[in-house]
Amino acid sequence: MKVKICGITDLTTAIAAVDYGADAVGFVFAESKRKISVIKAKDIITHLPKEVLKVGVFVNESKEKIEEIASEAGLTHVQLHGDETPAFSQSLSFPIIKAVGIHDNQSLKQLESYPCEYVLLDGPKGKFRGGNGLSFDWNCISPHDLKEKKVILAGGLDEENVEEAIKLIQPYMVDVSSGVETDGKKDLNKIQTFINKAKGSQTGGTRNEFIYTAE
C-alpha cells in the first residue's frame, strides 16, 4: 500500500514522512492554509529521494504558470483540483492526477475518459477545493469502474479509519493531509502511525490498480 502525505510546508516534516515510508509528498500552490512558495518547495524537493513522487496541487491555474512552477520546483506530477477540462489536462507536459469531489457513483462518470493516469476521489468542497478533512460515503461508489485509472481516494482519512477505508475501497495509495495534523500543523507521530496502519493493512499479493488518498 502506497501513501502520499499532502500539504507539506517544511523540510523536517518532508524528510520524516519519507523516512516513515511515504511514497509521495504533496505541495499546495493553490489558495490554502498550506500554500507553499515555489522557492521553499524547490528547497525541500532537492533533499528528497528521486523515487519519491513530488506532487504539486493546483486549482484552475493557467497552463503557463503550472508548467513554470512544476519545472522550477522539480515536481514529478501535477494534481488538478479545479474545473480543468480534459483538453487542458492533455496539454500539460507532466503526469496528471485529476481530483474530483465525490457525491455518488455518478461523480466517477466524468473521469472515465479523462486523459490522466491517476484520479483522486476527494470529499465535498469546503472553504478550499481540498484538504478540508471531509469524507464521503465510501459505500456510494464503485471505484473499480475506473479500470484504466489509478485511483487516489481522499477526504477525511486519519489513523483511526484508514484501515477500514483500505479494506472497503482496496486502493493503490492513500493520501492524507489534515488527518495527520494537530492544531493545524503536521504531527510527526500521527504521520508515522498513519503510514504504519496503511501499509500494514494489506500483506503482499497482487497490487491493486487504485490509489487511496486522505486529504
Structure notes:
With 215 residues, the chain is an alpha/beta fold. The chain has one domain: TIM Barrel. It contains six helices and ten strands; from the N terminus they run βαβαβαβαβββαβββα. It has helices at 11-20, 38-45, 63-73, 86-91, 162-169, 188-200, and strands at 2-5, 24-28, 53-58, 77-80, 96-101, 118-122, 150-153, 173-176, 181-182, 185-186. It has an eight-stranded parallel β-barrel with strand order 1-2-3-4-5-6-7-8. A two-stranded antiparallel ribbon has the order 9-10. β2 (24-28), α2 and β3 (53-58) form a beta-alpha-beta unit. α1 runs parallel beside α6. The longest helix is centred in the last third of the chain and has 13 residues, at 188-200. Mean pLDDT is 86; it is low at 203-215.
Poorly predicted runs = 203-215
In CATH terms, the superfamily is Aldolase class I
Give the CA-based shape.
Answer: globular
CA-atom Rg in angstroms: 16 Å
Category by helix and strand content: alpha/beta
Whole-number count of domains = 1
Number of strands: 10
Q: Biggest β-sheet: count, sense, barrel?
A: 8 strands, parallel, barrel
End-to-end gap: 17 Å
> What's the CATH architecture name?
Alpha-Beta Barrel
Strand order of the largest sheet: 1-2-3-4-5-6-7-8
- The H-and-E topology, N to C, reads as EHEHEHEHEEEHEEEH
CATH topology: TIM Barrel
Summarize this structure as a short list of keywords or feature phrases.
single chain; 215 residues; alpha/beta; TIM Barrel; 8-stranded parallel beta barrel; two-stranded antiparallel ribbon; 6 helices; 10 strands; disordered C terminus
